[in-house]
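@here heads up, posting the sequence + SMILES for the copper (II) ion run so it's all in one place. Ping me if the SMILES looks off, I pulled it from an old spreadsheet.
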Amino acid sequence: MKSYEGTMGSMNRALIAKGVAVAVGAIFSVGVACAGLVPTSAFKKATLPQVKAMLGKDNGKVSGKTVTYGKNAHIVIAAVLPGFPFPSFEIHHVKNPTLDIAAGATVKFTFINTNKGFGHSFDVTKKGPPYAVMPKVAPVVVGTGFSPVPTGGQFGYANFTWKAAPGTYYYVCEIPGHAATGMFGKIVVK
Ligand SMILES: [Cu+2]
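bot reply: prediction finished. Complex structure tokens:
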């Protein structure tokens, strides 16, 4: 099992530094990426053994648009493109759910990118929406930075941990244009 943490944060910062030209390129790239994506629900379409096995390790409980976790939380997030052109996150069949986490929980995140040939990130921040094309969210947890890219027939993924302090947070994709078009969700730690 390979983790992408560490190297991806600096790649993301470098990407953001390139500015709006990159943002425009990234938005066009969404269309290019559509050729290789998992088209709707990552859960429903998770026929690939790697993705199905990873998604099955999430230990949250779903109620409507909220997923609730206890003190030993394992949150498994898939980045998906449910419909052109807007990407989103998905956990337990739910698009961008609110995550309710017990205060003081040790949270293990596993983030899977189900888009072949296109990047996403998963970072936790105190900054809520709306987000600019270049989101500038100052993450409290830098998860993946510029994203795990699928290689060798496997979907890219990253594991990282967080000791959850009480408060309200948001998880966002920092790839230019993604948070601005809805690729984010709320985290409540209490
Ligand atoms: Cu994204």
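MO: The two ends are 32 Å apart (CA to CA).
MO: One more: The helical segments are 7-17, 20-33, 49-55.
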